[in-house]
Amino acid sequence: MDAAEFRRRGKEMVDLIADYLENIEQRPVYPDVEPGYLRSLIPEEAPEEPETYEDVVKDIERVIMPGVTHWHSPYFYAYFPTANSFPAMLADMLSGAIGCIGFSWAASPACTELETVMMDWLGKMLKLPEDFIAGTHGQGGGVIQGTASEATLVALLAARSRAVRMILASDPQRPETDITSKLVAYSSDQAHCSVERAGMIAGVRMKKIPTEQSDKYAVQGETLRRMIQEDKAAGLIPFYVRTEHIHPLLQYTLYVSVLLVLHICIFVSGNAEKIWMHIDAAYAGSSFICPEFRPLLNGIEFADSFNFNPHKWLLVNFDCSTMWVRKRSDLIGAFKMDPLYLKHDHQESGRYFDITFSCYSQSIRFRSLKMWFVFRMYGLKGLQDYIRKHVELAKEFESLVRADQRFEISADVVLGLVCFRLKGSNEVNETLLKRINNGRKIHLVPCQLSGQFVLRFAVCARTTESRHIREAWRLITQLAEEVMQELPN
Amino acid sequence: MDAAEFRRRGKEMVDLIADYLENIEQRPVYPDVEPGYLRSLIPEEAPEEPETYEDVVKDIERVIMPGVTHWHSPYFYAYFPTANSFPAMLADMLSGAIGCIGFSWAASPACTELETVMMDWLGKMLKLPEDFIAGTHGQGGGVIQGTASEATLVALLAARSRAVRMILASDPQRPETDITSKLVAYSSDQAHCSVERAGMIAGVRMKKIPTEQSDKYAVQGETLRRMIQEDKAAGLIPFYVRTEHIHPLLQYTLYVSVLLVLHICIFVSGNAEKIWMHIDAAYAGSSFICPEFRPLLNGIEFADSFNFNPHKWLLVNFDCSTMWVRKRSDLIGAFKMDPLYLKHDHQESGRYFDITFSCYSQSIRFRSLKMWFVFRMYGLKGLQDYIRKHVELAKEFESLVRADQRFEISADVVLGLVCFRLKGSNEVNETLLKRINNGRKIHLVPCQLSGQFVLRFAVCARTTESRHIREAWRLITQLAEEVMQELPN
C-alpha cells in the first residue's frame, strides 16, 4: 500500500470508525461467543501472497466484531471507564505516523519535552504541590507510564533502591541481599492484585494491612503503626507504603483512601524512617481537576509519588498512566544505565525528564500528543464538565436504586460508580447478574464487599446519557422481577 | 468534537500524514534544537476554554516538527529500524476506536484470541518448533509484549519462579529469600543494558560472561560451563541464561549468538539443572522468515522462551514485541492472581493465552490487529522481499566502504547494519560523526568495538532506496575529506 492508497483507505477507515461509534449502542454490548470462536474463522497460516484491503476490511465485521466487548457503548457499565475521544484518536494517528521511539532526548526531543510539559500542565490542573512540577528548575516532575500497575512497580523499585542506598550509607559493609531480604512494604488488604504482583516481581515482602467493615475498610494509622513497630522489632526494614484513592474496581475504597492518607501522612511525617509513600488514584485522579473533588487528594503533600490514569476518565485514549515524583533522581537512581549508544551531547541538561531512566520499557511511543490535543480541544472547563456529568449520572442511578425497596446501595456513591444489590442472598444476586449479562443489552461485573456479592454499575462511556441509565435500570428491574418470581416461596 | 467533525478532521489528518511521509526526506533528519526548546513555545498551563482544531493542528509544524528526529526518513541510519507501514497505521486507528482493554478473555474475546492466533501465524512463518505454537491443544504459545526489555524481564521472572518451585519441591522448609539470594543468571558481556536492569528489578545476581575479540565476542560454552561450576561450588544456584541473536544496537553480536546458542544448547541439554534459556533476537528475528536466514535460529529447540520485535523490522508499528514460551504455565506461574472481578465463565478453557497472566502491564491495547493487517496485506512473500531489500542495501553500502581505502569495515555485515570507521584514531572518527550529525542531512550513532569508536550505518526506513544509500555515502566521504584535511600532518 502506497501513500496514495493510504489517502483513500485512511479516509474510509475514518468513516468506518465514525460509523462504529455513532451506532455502537445498536450492538450487543457483550459478545455471544465461546472460547476459541475466532480460530475457526480465519486460515491457520498467514497468506503467501498479499491480499487486498477489501478482503481485510470485510473481515472486521465477520471475524472481529462478533468477539468484541464494546467498552464505548453507552450500555457498558463494567469494570471502569476507559477513555475514547476524537481528539485523542487524531493525536494517536499522528503519533503513529511520526513513529519515533522516545528512549532518550536525542531520539526525538519533541517527544521527551512535550511529555515533561504536558505532565506539568496536568499537575497544575490537579493543583499538585509545587515539588511535583518540573518547570525549568524543579527537582520533581512527571512521566507517562503504560498502566497503574507499572507505576506501582516503578515506585516500589525506586523506594527499594532509595532504602538500600540509605542503609548502605550508614553501614557500607552490609550485603545488599541481606538488606532486600528484610525490606517490608505495606498495602491495604483492599488493594488491587497488581500490588501483590509488584512485590513478587521486586522480590520484597508485601504485607497486607487488615481493614474492618466498621471503619469502612479504611486502613487505620494505628494498625499500620503497630505493624511497623513489630516488624522493626523483628529486625525487618519497613520502606514503602502504597495507598490508593480509589480502587479501580471497587468504589468502596474511596473513603478508605481519604482517611488512610491523612492517618498515614501524620504517621509518616512524624517518623524518621523515610518510608516511601506512593498514592495510586487510578480512576479517581481525573476528578481532582474539579475543586469540589480535590479535597480527596489532601495528604499528597507527604507523598513521594502519585499516579492516576487519564486513560480511564480524562478522555485520553489508552495507554496514558501519569506518574509524578517529588525527586526525579529517585527514579533515575532505580534504573540508570549508561551505554555509549544512548549518549548524546545534552545528556545531563536537567531541562527535561529523560524517559529511559524513568520507566521500565525504555522505548515509548509519542504519547503526550494525546494529552496535548485533548487538553486544548476540551479545555479545563470541558474536562470538568465531563467528570461532573458522569458523577451526576451515577447519582441518578443511585436514586433509582434507592427508590426501589427491593434493592439496597452497598457503598456510598461519591464519583461515577454505584455498588448495589438485591436485598437477599448472594445466590439471587449472582443469578440476577448472570441474567443481565446473558441479555447482552447492558454489561456489569460484580465485586465482593464483606462477603456479599455486589453488583457494580460504573458510568463508563463518553456518550452515556440519562436515557441510557433509565433504560439500564428498566432492564435490571425487569430481570430482578423474573429472578424473584422464580424463588421458592 | 463530535463524530461529524471527526469525519472531516480525520480525513485531513490522513492527508497530513500522507504528506508528511511522502515529503519526509526534505526535512533535516535530526533536529536543530537545544534542550528546553519546546517549553517556551507553548503556554505554561492548559487553556481554561476549548481551542479549535485549527489552533492545534497549526502548532504541529510550529512546536512539534522542529524537535522531531525523523525515524522514517530514508536518511535515518541511527539506532535500528522501527516499523512504519500504512496497513499497521490503519489497524491502529481501528484499535483506538474499539478501545477495549484486553486484561482477560471476557474483557474482549476478539482481542485475546486474535493475539493467540497471530502469534501462531508468526511462529509458523519463523518455523518455530511445534512446542511454541498454541494451536488448539498446545502447551506453549505467544503473547505480545511492549518491548524486548519487558520480554527479558518476564522471562527472568518466569525462570525465577520455576527455579524456586523446583527447589521447594525437594526442600520445602527452605526459606524463599534464601533461595532467591543465591540465584544466578548469566548473560553475555555484550548484552543490552536492559538485561542488567532486569536483574536489578528481579533482585537476582546477573553475571556477565566475558567474551573475547578473538572469538568474535562469542560466549564460549566452556567459559559458561566453568562459571556455572564455580558458582555451584560456592553454593549458588544457576537458573537462567539469556542469549541474543543480535544486539539491537550492535550488529557484531550476530555471530556471537550463533555460536553462543549452539554451545549453550549442547551444554544445557546435557545437564540436569533445567537452566532457563531465553533467546532475544529483537532486531534479527524478523529476518528468520527468510529461509536463507533461518539457520541463525538453530538451537531454538533447546530454548524455553524466544522473543523478537516485529515493531523493528517487520512493518508492524511500535509497540509489538513478540514472545513465545514452550510452556504457558511457566508464565502463568510467575504472575497469576485471581481476584473476583476478573473471574468469568470461561476462566480455564485453555483455548487461548490469557493476557493478564502473561505480561506485566495487565491492561493492553488491541495490538494484534496490526499484525493481522500487515501479514495479510504484505503476505509472507512481501515481507520476505522487504527484509531482503534492506539486506541488499546494507551490502551496497558495505561495498562502497570497502572500495574506499581510507575506511574499514569493523564487523562482518550479515543483515541490515554496517559497522565501519575511518582507518585512524578514535578522535578522528568522533569528529567525523559529529560533522555528519551536525549536517542534519543523515543521522548515525556510534558504538564501541574493542575500544574502537565505530560508526553504525543501519538501513532503517521503509522507503530507503539505493539512491539514498549513495547520497549518504557521498556525504560521509565529503565530510571525511574535510576532517582528514584538518588533521595535523
Give a brief outline of the structure.
The first copy, chain A, has helices spanning 3-22, 53-64, 86-98, 109-125, 148-170, 176-180, 193-202, 221-233, 253-269, 310-313, 328-335, 368-402, 426-439, 466-486, and strands at residues 141-145, 183-188, 205-209, 237-244, 276-280, 305-308, 321-325, 407-409, 417-422, 445-449, 452-458. With 489 residues, chain A is α/β, with parallel strands linked by helices.
Structural notes for this entry:
2 copies of one chain form a homodimer. By secondary structure, chain A is of the alpha/beta class. Chain A has a domain at 100-364: 3-Layer(aba) Sandwich (Aspartate Aminotransferase, domain 2). Helix content of chain A is 43%, strand content 12%. Chain A contains 14 helices and 11 strands. Chain A has helices spanning 3-22, 53-64, 86-98, 109-125, 148-170, 176-180, 193-202, 221-233, 253-269, 310-313, 328-335, 368-402, 426-439, 466-486, and strands spanning 141-145, 183-188, 205-209, 237-244, 276-280, 305-308, 321-325, 407-409, 417-422, 445-449, 452-458. Chain A has a 7-stranded mixed beta sheet, sandwiched between helices. In chain A, helix 7 links the parallel strand 2 and strand 3 (205-209). In chain A, helix 4 packs parallel to helix 12, helix 5 (148-170) packs across helix 7 and helix 12 (368-402) crosses helix 14 (466-486). Chain A is globular. The model of chain A is unreliable at 246-260 (pLDDT under 50). At the A-B interface, helix 1, helix 2, helix 3, helix 4 and helix 5 of A face helix 1, helix 2, helix 3, helix 4 and helix 5 of B.
